[in-house]
Amino acid sequence: MNPEASLIDSALRGWKSNVDRTTKLFGALTEEQLLEQVAPGKNRLIYLWGHLTASSDALLPLLGLGRRLHPELDSIFISNPDGYSQDVLSGADLKKVWDEVNNALWAAFSNLSPSDWAQRHTAVFAEDFKLEPHRNRFTVLLGRTAHLAYHFGQAKLAQR
């Protein structure tokens, strides 16, 4: 494996590891537990899981991999704070959406070559990308993996 492929493989393993442990954590919680706040006055666990799901769903168009599967999640979990919407999904429904989004992402990620990962993402203009080639798909993957790990840590602390 060449160095570029090795770096991509490592990053994808990091993404997959974080998705798997997040799936295990949230999937094991009851509906009651999902309604608990991370800390007094903070987001509920269901909101964090929905936020991560919506953020992951947004990766599909951002990375040029297709359309969002569930754009309706933004108004519940991205654009508004926890408690704003009464339309929060149940844990069982959110698990189905989480799995659907992450399966679609993994399938798309698995088809990208190292060269594909070095291409610009859709939120950067071609002219800007020439000046800032680090604004690529790979950098987005690294950032979103960190985002996922951060919120996993919040949820894990809430279990205490």
Structure description:
The longest helix is centred in the N-terminal third of the chain and has 25 residues. The termini are far apart. The mean pLDDT is about 95. It is built from nine helices and no strands. The chain is mainly α. Helix content is about 65%, strand content about 0%.
Overall geometry: globular
User: Mean pLDDT across all residues, rounded?
Assistant: 96
H-E string: HHHHHHHHH
Count, helices: 9
Oligomer: single chain
In terms of per-residue confidence, which ranges show pLDDT below 50 for 5 or more consecutive residues? none
Number of strands: 0
- Content of β-strand: under 5%
Rounded to an integer, what's the Rg over CA atoms? 16 Å
Distance between the termini: 42 Å
Question: How does the helix and strand content classify structurally?
Answer: mainly alpha
Let me know the largest β-sheet. Answer: none
Q: What is the helix content?
A: 55-70%
Primary descriptors:
single chain; 160 residues; mainly alpha; 9 helices; globular
Outline of this structure?
The protein has 160 residues and is mainly α.
How are the secondary structure elements laid out?
Elements lengths: L2 H25 L3 H4 L10 H13 L1 H4 L10 H5 L13 H20 L3 H4 L8 H6 L5 H22 L2
Helix pairs in contact: 1-6, 1-9, 3-6, 3-9
